[in-house]
# Entry
Amino acid sequence: MVSLLMVGVAAWGKWFGLVSSISVVAGVIGVGVFLLLVAFVGLCGALKHQQVLLFFYMVILFLVFVLQFSISCACLALNTDQQNQLLEVGWNRSEVTREDVEKTLNCCGFSSVNQTASCPAQCFATPETCDTCSEILQRYAGEVLRFVGGIGLFFSFTEILGVWLTHKYRNLKDPRSNPGAFL
# Structure
């Protein structure tokens, strides 16, 4: 379910032009496809009563739980200064992303408006009225990190429930097998 949601949201974001970076979309779709394959391994293991498939499903699901739980806790633990530092690192890393953010949010520069540089925002015609992008990004960063962290925590606990259920189901005997075969 989560994997299909990730693939759908990434494709929707690219289709409507909300996300311009193809590497971000490809990464999200790649993770979604990986989770879909892991779910398929678990389904096949459960339907065929294959303990080996269920074991690998359980191990991979536990590793996904640890990774997702760690990232969710990190999202919830970031304070304002750390958020601003991460935003500035991302701002300085890519010229294309910088221009896309300036155009979309109608802001110029990260911490100050440079009147000698170019800016694709509409407000650059009158630079005195332009807000800096750090102010606008900071407003949304805290909300987004709390939302993503909370959703990640919820799904990480459903994953640990899946690990526990897989462990219980893996040790059950196949009802279709011959009960006298092991005697």
Observations:
- The first helix runs from residue 2 to 15.
